User: What shape does this take?
Amino acid sequence: MADVRTCILIPVYNHPDSIANVCAWVAHLNLPILLVDDGSDVRCARALDELAAQGHQLLRLAHNQGKGAAVRAGLAHAEQLGFTHALQIDADGQHAVADLPAFLAMPEQAPQALVIGYPRYDTSVSRIRFYGRYATHIWVWINTLSLDICDSMCGARLYPLREVNALLHRHACGDRMAFDTEILVRWHWSGGAFRNLPVRVHYPTDGVSHFRLLRDNLQISGMHARLFFGMLLRLPRLLTGRLRRQTVEVAG
Assistant: This one.
């Protein structure tokens, strides 16, 4: 297996009170940290400058473009820096650091697999947030004709950079919240390998959410509709691939 070089990728937009702690929590993983400043305000930008002065990589976008754009820019920059994989986590500290080593070990088994987290919530999750995710889950299962993707909205995932950036060169997958889901569906359509791993999730009581109810729900609905028609165009190939996999499983 070729040498694996992994960095931690954290898109940041106005999380001045948590980002330093998140960097400190993942420090024991002994991996370089790449912070992507998605046009944060002065206070958060100052906090990121302090982290950069401590040796962390900082990529600064001129203005806020959305989580998808920040992740996409970070993935491209990470590959330019010579990394083969990027472990994405959120800037609010919601993902349990103790669960991340399992993600980092996965390239030893499947170096080209996209490793996605599926959340194990504690009592901090609201019912609206918990059940609201299932609308997206159902559409993803329809658009991939499979249950291969356990959760398409979790922000903890390990990207194989060369393969994912090649996909993003063909399909940008959106600039905002729809990005996380669309890239997984298009990765599935391309025949990319998946691994699903559990990650414990805790929502801080003072956490900052940048989800905009009307704007983001409209974009997510448009994304699902676009992917549905894309699935219909690919239906013969998807059905053939599904049948082939089932044949292999039975033979095995």
The mean pLDDT is 90. The chain has one domain: 6-251. Residues 11 and 210 are 12 Å apart (CA to CA). The radius of gyration is 18 Å.
